[in-house]
Specification:
The structure is a single chain. It contains twelve helices and no strands. The chain has a single domain, classed as MetI-like (MetI-like fold), CATH 1.10.3720.10. The protein has about 270 residues and is mostly helical. The longest helix is centred in the first third of the chain and has 37 residues.
Length: about 270
Amino acid sequence: MKSRKALIFWCALLLVIVCLTVFAQFISPYGTNEMNMDRIYEEPGKNHVLGTDHLGRDVMTRLLEGGKATLSIAVVSVLMSLIIGVIYGGISGYIGGFVDVVMMRFLEALIAIPSVIIILAFQAMMQGGVWSMAFIIGITNWLVTARIVRSEFIRLREAEFVQMAKMFGTPTWKIILQHMLRNSIPAVFVVTLFNFAGAVFMEVSLSFLGIGVPPSIPSWGSMLYYAQNDILIGAWWIGVFPGLMIFATILAINFIGEALKNPERRRLNA
């Protein structure tokens, strides 16, 4: 019961964060890049709930709009990595044999290369942007998904219901989709949640280093990047609030993933 309450709490927290970012334009009366040089570095108060930055821009507005950019990148990249991982891992696990060996050696070679190096190489060629960032993270974030799907397909390939389906002449595509992939959904869903948290962290890290989304587009990572100097002069609110949102989002996703990782524990707590 306690675990179920914790799961509900983290799901509710994540839902609140998502809703705040999605409906950002209806929550704040200020524009994302609306500047007011008479109100630079204004502390959190009545006019600006979370204060203003070095250009007099409302921090709350940029925080919510930045969350929309960060979460959009994470969602698109995770969907891309999910599709690539399921197809690659499914082919490897279902066919098996020599094909599986070759595909897994290639996968292990990619895993051995730090993903940051690949991302930096693609980022240099594609030169930033929200969708290019999502694409770059997506094509480097599918490796774990592929391994999980392969393991599930290998396990299910020898299952009795799959063998019976083959014996009755069920089409291969139907066996893969309805018997093997459907029974792999719980494991794939959990790894997708962790990939989502990883995508958020990757976007924040790259933007914090100044190689993420363009400066004209606010994101949580770019807000932290520009807040480095602001914190030194005492404008703590510019960096603290994006940091709290990042922390709360990744924490919520990880706790949800951990709660869903063990089905037997969920049944005991039901």
